[in-house]
Specification:
Layout (H helix, E strand, L loop, with lengths): L2 H19 L7 H4 L14 H4 L11 E18 L4 E4 L8 E10 L2 E16 L12 E16 L4 E19 L13 E20 L5 E8 L2 E13 L17 E11 L2 E10 L2 E10 L6 E6 L4 E5 L5 E11 L4 E10 L17 E11 L4 E12 L2 E5 L13 E19 L1
Antiparallel strand pairs: 1-2, 1-3, 1-20, 3-4, 4-5, 5-6, 6-7, 7-8, 7-9, 8-11, 9-10, 10-13, 11-12, 12-15, 13-14, 15-16, 16-17, 17-18, 18-20, 19-20
């Protein structure tokens, strides 16, 4: 494989690792405030995401929920051997959601959800120590989920529907630690693709033996994202390094690629119990990240590159509480532990995350009998980690070029939303 293909492999591995290794739980303000529990909690139309079997249990005929978040993240990298320290300059990310449900009859309900389960960006300083791995990344994804829900028996309901995923990504990095053009300008790579679509599905089951206890189950399927029309742009390259492609007078060239990214399946089971004005909830989530064991790339000339990722399945444990202080004010709090799927040797600086402790809080204020305003706050505390990113290439032999250091990461998320019912 020539040098151009190697550069594309490196860039794509980093790009798709970001989508696979980082996910912010921002699908509902009311449920985020409760530790992002929800598979057994029927508060409003947000239940469409957490458990589609629950929308038939909503009391009102029409339910609408909408909101958004501001994600403020901070990552610090330190190489103790050389005494260098760098910090990200990330902009605020703004994931959003919209859910609407309609009760056709006492036993049947329909709904539609639009939400952004992936959406963030990371920007490192110019010429930082890891610029050969990532300078900047901007990732967004929108899921559209039509849903049906049916009451099978007095205590058992089911629900589900297809999911249309629409994604886009822009990724930028330098080609290597030292490569420059004839004038000494660092060689740079940018990958871009948008309008990528794929299909999956979600199904749920809810068991409600009495008015106090609820048991919920939800499964979200694997979604394979196939990139077939993306472009990789190479800038400021010496002509000798870009063999086999057309290079303009500025040392730039563009090529295409095909790649498939698996968004793993998720299984969530949970329960809730209500005492008068207090509601407690627990969810356990298992994400099947081991589906992402390799990233296979096919370039425009038909050459295939196989790149191991070796992710592991990961668990999240969530606890939440809700208390109705008055007829108008409801207060919520929660905690969840999120286990990272990234294994040693695959810790990439565009996905600077590890196991995390997550603390949540929020409240809802009922403006009138139909409209409520919801707020939520989440503080994410990642465990400090000393790790490396080991690069693999299939140029005839496996090559390792680890980039190691200590990472300290944290994130703060604030959200605002409304719920409407009639």
């Amino acid at each position: 494989m020539n040098k151009l293909k190697v550069f594309v492999v490196l860039c794509l591995i980093s790009t798709f690792a970001y989508a696979g290794g980082y996910r912010v739980s921002t699908q509902s303000n009311t449920q985020l405030a409760m530790g992002h529990t929800g598979v057994a909690v029927v508060n409003n139309a947000d239940i469409l995401f957490f458990n589609p079997a629950g929308i038939v249990h909503l009391e009102n005929k029409l339910n609408i929920s909408a909101g958004g978040f501001g994600v403020f993240s901070d990552v610090k990298y330190q190489n103790q051997e050389f005494g260098t320290t760098f910090e990200t300059e990330s902009e605020v990310s703004t994931p959003v959601y919209l859910y609407a449900t309609y009760k056709v009859s006492e036993d049947f309900a329909v709904g539609l959800g639009v939400y952004t389960p992936y959406g963030s960006n990371v920007t490192w300083p110019t010429d930082w120590a890891g610029s050969h791995l990532v300078n900047e990344i901007d990732l967004s994804a929108i899921f559209i989920q039509p849903t049906l829900s049916y009451q099978l028996f007095d205590s058992v309901s089911i629900g589900g529907g297809p999911i249309l995923a629409i994604g886009a990504v822009t990724f930028n990095r330098n080609a290597s630690r030292t490569l420059t053009d004839e004038e000494g300008v660092r060689s740079n790579i940018e990958i871009e693709d948008s309008g990528i679509t794929a299909w999956g599905w979600s199904a749920g089951l809810m068991f409600t033996p009495d008015d106090r206890f609820t048991l919920g189950f939800n499964y979200r399927s694997l979604i394979d994202i196939n990139s077939t029309e993306g472009t990789a742009t190479f800038s400021n390259f010496p002509n000798s390094s870009l063999t086999g492609v057309a290079v303009d007078e500025n040392g730039s060239a563009t090529t295409g690629f095909d790649a498939t990214l698996p968004l793993p399946a998720e299984l969530t089971i949970g329960m809730s119990y209500k005492w008068d004005k207090l509601l407690l909830a627990f969810d356990y989530n298992r994400t099947l990240w081991s589906e992402y064991n390799s990233l296979d790339l096919e370039f425009s000339n038909g050459v295939t590159s196989i790149n191991p990722r070796n992710y592991k399945d990961a668990s999240t444990w969530r606890l939440g509480a809700q208390y109705e202080f008055t007829e108008k004010l409801t207060v919520r709090g929660g905690y969840y532990f999120d286990e990272s799927p990234v294994q040693s040797g695959f810790f990439a600086p565009e996905t600077p995350r590890n196991d995390s402790n997550n603390y949540t809080f929020g409240l809802s204020y009922k403006v009138n009998s139909k409209l409520s305003i919801d707020t939520s706050f989440l503080f994410v505390q990642f465990k400090e980690i000393n790790e490396s990113y080991d690069f693999f290439s299939d140029t005839g032999a496996t090559t390792t070029a680890p980039f190691a250091g200590t990472y300290k990461s944290s994130a703060f998320i604030g959200g605002l939303g409304i719920t409407y019912s009639m």
